[in-house]
Amino acid sequence: MSNNRQKIINRKLSYWQIIVGYIKQHLIKYPLLYELTIKLYRYVRNLIPDFASITYKDGSSWKYISYDLGLLQVNREQSEKISHPLRSFTAHYEKDEDFSKYITDIKAIAYYLPQFHAIPENDEWWGKGFTDWTNTKKTEPLFPGHYQPREPHEDIGYYDLSDVEIIKKQVAMAKKHGIFGFCFHHYWFHGKRLLGKPVDLFLKHPEINMPFCLCWANETWSKRWDGSDHLILMKQIFSPEDDLQFIQFLEPYLRDSRYIRVNGKPMLIVYRISKLPNPLETAKRWRNWAKENGIGELHLVAVTHGEVFPHTSLSEIGFDAYAAFPPHTFKCKKIHGHRKIFTGGYRFDYESGVNSYTYPNTDTSIYEGCTLGWDNTPRFLRNATIYLNFSLNSYYKWLRKIIENTSAKYQNPENRFIFINAWNEWAEGAYLEPDKKYGYAYINTTSRALFNIPTKYLEKQEESHESAIRYTKEYESTKYLIDKKREKAWAFINQLIRSDSHILEFGPSSGFFTRYLKEERNAVVDIVEIDESCAEQASEFARDCHIGDIEQYLWKDAFAGRQYDFVLFADVLEHLRDPWSVLKEAGQFLKADGRIIISLPNIAHVQIIASLYNNDFSYSSAGILDKSHLRFFTEPTIRQMVEEAGLQVCNLIPVQSPLLPEGCGTYWNKSGIPFKLKRMLSKKEHAYAMQFVVCCKRK
User: Where would I find the H helices in 293-412?
Assistant: First the structure.
C-alpha cells in the first residue's frame, strides 16, 4: 500500500474516532438519539470501501479490518458470507537435534538453489554482489502476522556458496537429519551454464559423501522471475544440437559415483517439460548418446507442472517418471480479496491442501513431494503468492501421507524417492535450513516425519504457541482500554486500586488483569482459578495460585493467615451457585482498611427489559445473558447481597452502554415495542448500565 493511500485510511479512521467520541460525550444523555446515531454510524462505516465488515464464524461480534490484512478465508454458509480468521504462520523455536541413529528406506531429496554466490551476469542485471540474500534482506511484512523478512540462523549466517566449507556444513546437517540427497537446479542456456560453482565444488571434492542429482531449470530468465518472455535476460533456445551439447556437458556429473541412480540409471530431471519443442525426440537423443558413451540407460523425470500433469502420459514425452515440485499441482483453497482485504498477488490456505491431499495418480510413476509453505514476497513484493495457515503440524501430516503412499506404491526400496521443496529457497519462504526466529524447527520436523517419530508434544507446543499469540494480542487490547480510561469495567476497577497493593483475585481467567496489576501497578497477586490451562497462564504473573472450585473453599486453607488490601471478583459472582456465601467468606481476608471490588452485569438494562416485553430471553455466548450465568442482579439486589455479606458499599459505578453489542442475546430492536414504553424505560435510573463496578468495605 502506498504511503498516500495509508494516510487517507488513517485520516478516515481519525474522523470516525472524533465522531464517536463526540457522540459518547454529548449524546449519552439522550439515549434514543444516541441509539439512532450509533446505528447510522455502523451503517455508514460498512459502506466505506477501505474496510470490510466481517462476521466471525461463531457470530459473536463484528470486526472491521484494514485494507491489506489478507488473513481471512471467505466462504458462503447458509446464504451468508462467513469469514474465517486464518493464521499466517505457526511454528516454534527448536534447537538442533541429531537423528543420525535412526534408519529409513525413504530417500528424501531436497531441491537445492545455487544462487547464493555472485556471478558477473547477476552483477550486471541486478547490481554488484547480487545473490538471493539481496532480495531476502530488504523484504517487509505486507500485513500483521506476515512472517517477513526471513533471516538465517547465526549457525549458518548469510553464507556464500563459493566456499566449499559452507557446502560441507550443509551436507553434514542434511545427513544428520535423514536427508538422502540434494537436487541442484542446473541453469543451462544454449551452451552457457550459470550459477554452477556449488555443484562443481561438490564434484571436485569427493570427500563430500552425499548423493546428488540435477534438475535442468529450462526456463528463460527475465526481470519478472517467472520464466516469462518479458524483459528477457537470458533466453532458452532449443534445438537437436543443443540436446546433444547439453547431455555431453553433464557427462562428468552423470559418471560420478555419488550421482543418484534408480536401478543403476542416473536420474535427470527437467523442470518445464512443456518448454521442449519435442520432448519425445529430446529424450531419444539423450538416451542414445548415454548408451553410446558408456553411461548406459538414463532415468528421465519430468516435474509435475499442470501443463502436462496429470493429463499427459509418460509415454507421450518419453520419460520414466514425474516428480512433484509443490506448490505446483498442490490444490488449496484460494483466499479471495473480499472487499479489498488485500490487493495484488495470490493467497492460498496451506492447511486445506494438506487435509485434502491424496495420491495424485496411481497409474503413473510419480515421486511425491511437499513444501514448507510458500511466500515469494522477496521477489514479487505486493504481487506475491503466499500460502497462509501454515503450521509445522500440517507439514508433518503432509509429509507422513507422502511417505506412507510411497512405501505402499513402491515395493522395491530402490524407488522410494520423495522430493522436498526446498533446502534453501529463502526468497520463496521454503527452506529446511535453520532461521533466526524458529531455529531448526523445519528440519527437525522433517526428520520426525521421515523416521515416524510421534509428534504429540509438537501439537501441544504449537497449541501453546498459538495460545500465547492470542494471549498477547488480547492483553494489549485490555491494557489499551485501561490506560485510556475507557468506560469499561477494567478501567473503573483499576482506578479503585492503589499501587503496591496485596491482592487476592478470584477467576482471573488467562490473567490479563493479573499481568497488568503486576507489571503496571507493582502489585503482589494471589489467584484462585478453576480452569487449569487458564491458571497456568495467569500464574506466571501471580505470587501463588490455587486451582479449584471457588465454592469448595479449599482456597481458604491455601491462603490461611494472609490479609489483602483488595479482593477482586471481576465478572465472577454471577457464575456461582451461592455468591452470597462466597462474598462473606472472602471478606474475612481483608485488612482493616481493605476493599472488595466486584463487577456484575445488570439484568435491568433497558434493552433486556424491552426484549422480555417481546417474550425474548435469548441466551448467548457473551454479555448480560451469557449461557454460563447462574445468577442475575440489579443495582438494589447487588446492594442487598453486599449487606448480607457483612459489607457496605463505598462506591457503585455504572458502566454505560445505551446500545448493547450485537450477539449479546437480545433482538428487541428488530421487533415492535410501543414508543411510550421505550421512553418510559429509558428514564429509569441506570437504565443503560450494562454492568456495575462496586467497591465494598467491612462494616
Answer: 314-317, 350-355, 377-380, 392-409
The residue written with cell numbers 528424501 in the block is: 108
Q: What's the chain's Rg over C-alpha atoms?
A: 33
Q: Which three cell numbers stand for residue 460?
A: 501441544
Can the peptide bond before residue 149 be classed as cis, meaning omega within 30 degrees of 0? yes
Question: What DSSP element (H or E) covers 654?
Answer: strand 647-656
Query: What nine digits make up the cell of 113?
Result: 538453489
Q: How many domains does the chain have?
A: 3
Going by their DSSP bridges, the two strands 346-349 and 333-335 should be labelled as antiparallel
Do residue 499 and residue 648 come from a single domain? yes
pLDDT tens for each residue of 132-180: 999 999 999 887 678 999 999 999 999 999 999 999 999 999 999 999 9
Q: pLDDT band for position 84 (50/70/90)?
A: very low
> Which three cell numbers mark 105?
528406506
Residue 163 belongs to domain with CATH number: 3.20.20.80
Rounded-to-integer distance, Cα 418 and Cα 367, Å: 5
Helix (H, G, I), strand (E, B) or coil at 420: strand
Look over the chain and give the mean of its residue pLDDT values, rounded to a whole number.
Answer: 84
Structural domain of residue 540, as residue ranges? 465-698
Q: What whole-number distance in Å separates Cα of residue 34 and Cα of residue 14?
A: 20
Is 409 in the same domain as 325? yes
Task: Give CA–CA dist 67/52, Å, rounded.
Answer: 8
User: Helix (H) and strand (E) counts for the chain?
Assistant: 23, 31
Tell me: pLDDT of 48 over 50.
Answer: no
Tell whether 367 and 483 lie within a shared domain.
no
Domain boundary residue, one of 425, 454, 483: 454
